[in-house]
From TrEMBL:
Belongs to the aldolase class II family. Signal peptide: none annotated. Pfam families: Aldolase_II. This is Adducin-related protein C1289.14. It comes from Paraglaciecola polaris LMG 21857. Residues 39-219 form the Class II aldolase/adducin N-terminal domain. GO terms for molecular function: actin filament binding. One of its GO terms (cellular component) is cytoskeleton. InterPro entries: Aldolase-II_Adducin_sf, Aldolase_II/adducin_N, Aldolase_II/adducin_N_sf. Transmembrane segments: none annotated. It comes from the Bacteria. SUPFAM superfamilies: AraD/HMP-PK domain-like (SSF53639). GO terms for biological process: monosaccharide metabolic process.
Length: 268
């Protein structure tokens, strides 16, 4: 996963020296940080609902707890994404015990996400859903190709989990998914769907929305004819500019502002 400490020069806004540029907040109070991050997680589910990433009981986004990092927050089972509030979230540990919350949790969410969180201490958020284009692309058994500026974010930055044994029900398969993810920001689960990760919910969700869109673009392009790929060095340069945690965090901010303006009930 790409790590940059500052925005690439081409992302700096005109007038940056005069006007404020959105930046991730910093906290000295862990309780305030926890509440803020839970609200961002609830917003992530609203974003998934907006993009129609909801399929019955399937799909989950998780957030490592900032106070007890061996636990993580996840969506309650059976609550539609567009209705989830910060107070609805459930916190579980890596053994599957519910630490906080009043709802049951999808077992697949535990089996997959607990193992990714354990394998990747740099990852604070994991996003997964069974989307229309993610499902379609995943059955091809291939990676996204560098056919656009956006797709370059995933160039040599994605894994492929090529084993499908049915609904993920145990931690062993979660371990294999985490191994396929490796140090990348995303993994394609063959015949299943997509997973993206990030150091924040904002980055993980923004990456997921973009990856699903890139799946759609490649499906359309492959159906129309042969692909013209971006050269290796240019693809890597583009990934470095667009794939940093700070830039991907920034990609979520306009969407978050729109969600909050439309219906801020997720903050509750």
């Amino acid at each position: 996963m790409i790590e940059n400490n500052q925005l690439d020069a081409q992302h700096m806004a005109i007038g940056a020296s005069k006007f404020r540029i959105p930046m991730p907040p910093k906290f000295t109070n862990k309780e305030q940080q926890r509440q803020y991050e839970k609200q961002r997680l609830a917003a992530g589910f609203r974003a998934f609902a907006l993009h129609h990433f909801d399929e019955g009981l399937a799909g989950h986004i998780t957030l490592r707890d900032c106070i007890e990092p061996d636990t993580f927050w996840v969506n309650p089972l059976g609550v539609h994404f567009k209705m989830i509030k910060a107070t609805d979230l459930v916190r579980i540990d890596h053994n599957g015990n519910i630490v906080e919350g009043a709802h049951a949790v999808n077992n697949a969410a535990f089996a997959i996400h607990s193992r990714v969180h354990m394998a990747r201490p740099d990852v604070n958020a994991v996003a997964h859903a069974h989307t229309k284009y993610g499902r379609a692309f995943s059955c091809l058994g291939q990676l996204l190709k560098p056919i656009s500026q956006d797709a370059c974010i995933f160039y040599e930055n994605q894994g492929l989990f090529s084993t499908f044994t049915g609904v993920v029900a145990d931690k062993d398969e979660g371990d294999m998914i985490a191994e396929s993810l490796a140090q990348h920001c995303a993994v394609i689960l063959q015949n299943h769907g997509l997973i993206t990760v990030g150091s924040s919910v904002d980055a993980a969700v923004a990456n997921f929305i973009l990856m699903d869109s890139c799946c759609q673009s490649q499906l359309l392009a492959q159906a129309a004819g042969s692909l013209t790929l971006i050269e290796h060095d240019i693809a890597l340069k583009t990934r470095a500019a667009n794939g940093s945690e700070l830039v991907t965090w920034g990609n979520f901010q306009p969407l978050y502002a729109m969600l909050e303006d439309r219906d801020p009930s997720f903050l509750e």
